[in-house]
Write a structure and sequence with these properties.
- The protein is built from five helices and ten strands, in the order αααααββββββββββ.
- The chain has 177 residues and is an alpha+beta fold.
- It folds into two domains: 64 residues, lambda repressor-like DNA-binding domains (434 Repressor (Amino-terminal Domain), Orthogonal Bundle), CATH 1.10.260.40; 103 residues, Sandwich (Jelly Rolls).
- It has a six-stranded antiparallel sheet, with no helix packed on it. Strands 4-9-6-7 form a four-stranded antiparallel sheet, with no helix packed on it.
- A hairpin with a 2-residue loop joins strand 2 and strand 3.
- Helix 2 crosses helix 3 and helix 2 packs across helix 4.
- Keywords: DNA-binding.
Amino acid sequence: MDDASLAVGARVRALRQERGLSLTALADAAGIGKGSLSELENGGRNPTLATLYAIASPLGVPLGALLDFREGARVDGDGVETTLLHTEHGDGRTSEVYLLRVAAGVTRRSGPHSTWVVEQLVVLEGTCEVAHGDPGEEVVVTLGPGGTTRLPGDVPHRYTALGPDDVRAIDVIVTPW
C-alpha cells in the first residue's frame, strides 16, 4: 500500500458515506465488485482510471474529487496515464487540467460522465483518434500535434493512439459541480 492509494481510498469512502451509500450500492452503481471497492477504500488496491471514473459518476463528483484535487496526483493502468496539473472551482463548475498519455496502439474508452460534462483535448505529441457518441452514431476526428477538439463528456467516448508513438495531450474536463 502506498500513501496515494490510501488517500484515494479514504476519499472514496468519505464521499460514499457522505451520500449515505452502502459499499454494495456504490459497487453496483459503478459496475465493479464489492470486494474490489472494499480493497480500494482500504488502500489495498491501486485504482485504475477506468475504476475511478466508474466510481465518480454515481457519487456525482469530478474525477479530481477522488484525488482530493491534489496537483501532481497520477493514475495509470492499461496503457493510459493521467496526471492532474491544475483545478479551478467557481460559477458552479470545476475545471480540471490533466496531462494524458495513451500508449501507442491503445484505446482509452470512457463511459458517460455526469450530465453536462465537457472535455477539450489538445494533442501535444503523436496522432490520436477521438470519438464520441453512441455506437453507430459516433463523431470521429483524427488529431496530430497541435490539434484540438471539444466533446461532450456525458456520452461514451474514446481516445486511440494511432501509429508507432504514444499520444501525449492536455485534457481539460469541465464538470458542473
